[in-house]
Amino acid sequence: MTASSSADPRLRFDSDPRFGNALAMSHPSPVVRAEPPIDGLVLHAFTRAELPERFVAPLVELQQTRLRERFPEDPLPRTAQMALELRAPAMAAWDPRFVLAEAGGRLLGFDEPGVDFEDNPQQLWLDPYVLPEWRRRGIGRRLVAKAIEALSEHPIRSAGFSLVPRDPIGRALQARVESGWGLAPAIVGRKGRLYLSQLDREAIAAQTAEREAALAPEHRALFFELDALPAAETGFDLADFCDMVQEIENLMPLEDLALEPERFSPERFHALTAYLRGSGLTMWNYVAVEAATGRSLGLTNISFDPEDPRRISQWDTGVRKAAQGRGLGKTLKLLMLRKILAELPEAKFIRTDNAASNAPMLAINTALGFREHHRELGYQLPLADLCRRLDIAAPDAPPAPIDASG
Fold it and tell me: pLDDT at position 397, please?
């Protein structure tokens, strides 16, 4: 199950640990630069459980600074919710770390690297950020080096990061990575927005009612929040639901990313809901089921902060391959939209994320009124190449597996 609808292959939220922030590197070539010394600079690395309380408020402040720089027009998430998210239990099979650069008792930058140790243990995702006044002093490079060291227990051979060429630093880094390093994006994410104040609510209500009526008698729509699953008499089965999510994940385009699709299971579902609940967030789900059997055929889901629902994040929307062509995906999205308009009057916009190659979902979103807000460019390269370009030590290669075949 992916955050921000139908593009990303990993289980995550709008702030994607793979593709969350411009890679604030110090230079694009393997030539070593003379970097001004920073008195008392210390690099820390923590698991979620280890993060000291003294760093929580400064780290939230840094995250808010990043959001203001990139999206100055957006309302910030609640400070208390962001602090909860730092403490929330890690999602299943995801090993996240906090890497912090501190000098003089102040945080100057951070990274939130992570590894999916079950499906893609060879892949490191990086997400560094450095305060504008401290850039070009080698802090980004050192954050990346510390991130690689912190996660060296995994057999990492590839690194991934993203750039959002929406602000000056994003555009400058895109030029460095593409012109200087010769990289092309492995995936292009189209980040869409639906501004709810611009909707024709009467038209939405009429469309939704028409499509809801057309579901019967073969299908029906079930709603549930977080892990408050539909009643047994509906025929809903969590294992079947997770099997559907897995099928939808497998259909999502990875473009040129060298990754295996995420595996989804009841255990991962419960880990996801624990993460959301621990983060002060909730999730709404609509599922289309076969009326006769209760088999899950399609879904759409969103997450938001119930205490401040101005920003809504679209997660998955998808339909089993055998059930496509019946309009179930658009019907589910309309049902969700009607519920948002009725029950979340404070909501300002819905954010969605689609691979640029995902034409069917882009068409549905465009018909509903979503418009492209910005693009996020995801890059992937061998870890050894990244280390060479940043002049940092590459981890030793793990021993080759023994061929016991004789």
Answer: 56
